[in-house]
């Protein structure tokens, strides 16, 4: 199937020259981009297909087209526990402690429906590829539940098999009821990789090994996971250096900074990315740059939990791969990818001055940056051979009024808008602002009921 997008006010390529094409067009065949350029220069064979109706044509007049945004960190099940009163005003460790017991009542259906809900929100906000870090599996839940949801939604997905194994009785943070046995974690990780991981170009599904954090799993599990990941060629992901308590825990338990601990465990390299890294020190930044270790920067979550300002400017200057993450919906109660890019830009300016990050750099981090963090070279830019993942924003909406001087920068400077159109892997998934792959009102109705059920079970059962 050939898909031809025409007449975009501007087509942002993020290609090697960072071209922004006025009156741009794009041709996709199946999952891949075949041609990108000005609409007036569309090759004759494609022009004929537009004229004879043999291609699917998307008119992008009045719209800015960009590569699909890449979300590198999320906990989608948390969309059931937004704005929980007991966890509204806490820092990380007490926030977690207030939520763990609630999450212990999750069911497979809750995982599936919350994943669909979170993906709908992401897709409408410009995201086409996402990772999800699921690290609790109560009541028979499995990573398969979120994988099935992603396939239904049509989103490109990096499913991170999280885990927690060190409960409170062993000096960890989580209550014992939500931790798993380490041998079982490794067995299930192996099963998931063998069953689902697709290493091919344009893969829609990859599996990631992702023990939750240094304060909830053992040294052994971190090491064993790294060995398994290298054996299968899959990526590794965890939380690192999120706030001052996190640093204190690392120094006290391991006698190392988080970056030193990561290096000691084999958790550095282009196949590894760490969420947050708000407190990554200069030595850690140099280590990450040298090894190509990635960072998922989550500005809204960092502000929400008062964790601090991640040194993204210094990371980027040193050459550390940086992508964006909305983080779980319980620590960023909104999960808008374009909004996250805006906050990334604003927060660097708060920390390091008005020149610390431009709108275009924020967009680059949200696209190419995320692709690099996920260890992919087939997404994040629109050029021949890249995956056909792109989104379009309607510049006639009130939020962009008066911003025609620079519509590309406007995407980041103005109030974040939802997309008018989205194409993932050559397939149209949003048309005129409506999601095509799910009955969203029905999903949200069920989601609301399940969120209520979760609270009822927790108040009775805990
Ligand atoms: Zn997280």
Structural notes for this entry:
With 462 residues, this protein is an alpha/beta fold. The protein folds into two domains: 2-67 and 381-431, Urease, subunit C, domain 1, CATH 2.30.40; 69-374, TIM Barrel (Alpha-Beta Barrel), CATH 3.20.20.140. 39% of the residues lie in helices and 21% in strands. The strands form two sheets. Strands 1, 2, 3, 4, 5, 14, 15, 16 and 17 form a nine-stranded mixed beta sheet that branches. Strands 6-7-8-9-10-11-12-13 form an eight-stranded parallel beta sheet. The longest helix has 22 residues, at 440-461. It is globular. The model has no long low-confidence stretch (mean pLDDT 96). The chain binds zinc ion (ZN). Zinc ion (ZN) binds at residues 73, 75, 239, 275, 327-328.
Give a short synopsis of this structure.
Belongs to the metallo-dependent hydrolases superfamily. ATZ/TRZ family. This protein has 462 residues and is an alpha/beta fold.
Task: Please give a handful of descriptors for the protein shown.
462 residues; alpha/beta; Urease, subunit C, domain 1; TIM Barrel; 2 domains; 9-stranded mixed sheet; globular; binds zinc ion; Amidohydro-rel; metal-binding; hydrolase; Metal-dep_hydrolase_composite; zinc
Question: Which of globular, elongated, flat, extended, rod-shaped describes the shape?
Answer: globular
What small molecules does this complex bind? zinc ion
Strand content: 15-25%
The number of helical segments is 15
Describe the largest sheet.
Answer: 9 strands, mixed
Number of domains as seen in the coordinates: 2
CATH architecture label name of the largest domain: Alpha-Beta Barrel
Span of the ends, CA to CA = 53 Å
- By CATH, the topology of the largest domain is TIM Barrel
**How much helix, percentage-wise, in residues?**
25-40%
Task: Report the radius of gyration as a whole number of Å.
Answer: 21 Å
Keywords: Hydrolase, Metal-binding, Zinc
Family: Belongs to the metallo-dependent hydrolases superfamily. ATZ/TRZ family.
Protein name: HYDROXY-ATRAZINE ETHYL AMINO HYDROLASE (AtzB)
InterPro entries: Amidohydro-rel, Metal-dep_hydrolase_composite, Metal_Hydrolase, MTA/SAH_deaminase
